[in-house]
Amino acid sequence: MKYDEFIKHVQALAQLNSGEQAESATRATLEIIRERIVGDEAKDLASQLPEELAKYLQGREGENGQHFNMQEFIKRVAEKEGVEPTHAVIHVRSVFAVLRNAITPGEFEDFQANFTHDYAELFPSSPTSEVPA
């Protein structure tokens, strides 16, 4: 999936007013993912994304992820993005849904395995075929 397509899908799913807002939501989410998951898994995830997105996941190769719960994840995304946590939840869900369609199913399973069960509500239950074009 190309960068512009990824951002367009996030914008549509999160019902954001601009591509800039979708870029901000995506960047904040990916940067907090980088903090949360094992560095080598972040590198693997980055390898399947456009360079413009991959750069937000790089730099922690060989390191363990930080263990924090879903509420802390949302708080960190909200702070980084400069939005209310209620909006950040929608943005994270949208980014996760687009990620599911942008990477291979096996890589998405590996990515999801880095999160505890309390994160389940952020993950799409199946690939979204209705991601708008």
Task: Write a structural description.
- There is one protein chain.
- The protein is an all-alpha fold.
- The chain has a single domain, classed as Uncharacterized conserved protein DUF2267 (Globin-like).
- The chain has 7 helices and no strands.
- The chain has helices at residues 3-14, 19-36, 39-46, 51-54, 70-81, 85-102, 105-112.
- The radius of gyration is 13 Å and the shape is globular.
- The N and C termini lie close together (12 Å).
Quick take:
This protein has 133 residues and is an all-alpha fold.
Task: Explain the layout of strands and helices.
Elements lengths: L2 H12 L4 H18 L2 H8 L4 H4 L15 H12 L3 H18 L2 H8 L21
Helix pairs in contact: 1-2, 1-6, 2-5, 2-6, 3-7, 5-6
Features:
133 residues, mainly alpha, Globin-like, 7 helices, 60% helix, disordered C terminus
Please tell me the total number of domains.
1
**What average pLDDT do the residues reach?**
92
| Radius of gyration, CA atoms, in whole angstroms | 13 Å
Total DSSP helices: 7
Which architecture name does CATH use?
Orthogonal Bundle
H-E order: HHHHHHH
Tell me about the largest β-sheet: none
Unreliably modeled segments: 129-133
Number of strands: 0
**Apparent shape:** globular
CATH class: Mainly Alpha
Question: In percent, how much strand structure appears in the residues?
Answer: under 5%
Indicate the percent of residues in helices: 55-70%
Structural class by SSE content? mainly alpha
Span of the ends, CA to CA: 12 Å
CATH topology: Globin-like
The CATH superfamily name is Uncharacterized conserved protein DUF2267
